[in-house]
Amino acid sequence: MSDHRAHQDSPDARPAGAPAQHADDADAQAFRELLRGLRVWDVALPSFDPATAPAEPLPLFRQWLREAAEAGVPEPHTMTLATADEAGNPSVRTLMLHDADERGWHFASHRGSRKGRELAVRPRAALGFYWPAVGRQVRVSGPVTVAGPEESAADLHHRSTGALAAALVGRQSEVLGSVEELARASEAAWERARSEPAAPVPSWTLYVLRPEEVEFFQGDAQRRHVRLNYRYENGRWTQDLLWP
């Protein structure tokens, strides 16, 4: 107790701390003002009549992604992937959609990555797409299955040289010693990818999320958002409107 009081009563402790606290408060206030001043959907948004939606979600998803691309959304095939570990602790990251077909939504990674390890113990996931230029979101959730090694290899080798080089570097989610170590590994991987375009990457795995629920969200400037939710039950898709 005496040490604590002595520290509080020190003539140097309080003046030294006060300006720093003031600066922290000012920074926090400036940040809050920045957030509150950011505008959302200051452009004309498309309308969406859920009565015209197809019986299944896949055609509508393909249509919305195509329209997002036509509206100038950069990288409209990027998505958020959420997984959870054995204890139920969630993690999230952004990656690319590789396909969406009757089997489900396709993405890929190394088996030893964090998402690969989590999917091995909890083979369920959720995806999120956001296309701000058209005020649209799509959420997809369901069980995840692993494609075979041949299909996984074909997925990788249909992609760019850069994608192959990144896969050849490997060791995703492991602790990195230095940026120089990454630079050396990347340079070697790029050389191999250019000279050996069919180079195998055994850890590369294609995953397929089979949707059980797909929600389509159309934003509205007056906040009368349209939310159409598909659920797969008893062998067929059902639809519900949701309150925004």
Describe this structure in words.
The protein has 244 residues and is an alpha+beta fold. It has a domain at 55-161 and 201-242: Pnp Oxidase, Chain A, CATH 2.30.110. Helix content is 37%, strand content 29%. It contains seven helices and ten strands. It has helices at 2-9, 13-37, 57-70, 114-121, 149-157, 161-169, 179-195; strands spanning 78-84, 90-96, 99-101, 104-110, 124-131, 136-146, 204-209, 213-218, 226-233, 236-242. Strands 1, 2, 3, 4, 5, 6, 7, 8, 9 and 10 form a ten-stranded antiparallel β-sheet that branches. Helix 6 crosses helix 7 (179-195).
Q: What is the CATH topology of the domain at 55-161 and 201-242? A: Pnp Oxidase, Chain A
Q: Specify the overall morphology.
A: globular
Task: Enumerate how many helices there are, as a single number.
Answer: 7
Q: Which CATH class of the domain at 55-161 and 201-242?
A: Mainly Beta
State the total count of DSSP E strands. Answer: 10
Low-pLDDT stretches: 1-14
CATH superfamily grouping of the domain at 55-161 and 201-242: Electron Transport, Fmn-binding Protein, Chain A
Q: For the CA atoms, what is the radius of gyration? A: 24 Å
Order of helices and strands: HHHEEEEHEEHHHEEEE
Helix proportion? 25-40%
Query: What structural class do the secondary elements suggest?
Result: alpha+beta
Domain Pyridoxamine 5'-phosphate oxidase N-terminal: 66-187
InterPro entries: Pyridox_Oxase (IPR000659), Pyridox_Oxase_N (IPR011576), Pyridoxamine_oxidase_dimer_C (IPR019576), Split_barrel_FMN-bd (IPR012349)
Organism: Streptomyces glebosus
Region (Disordered): 1-24
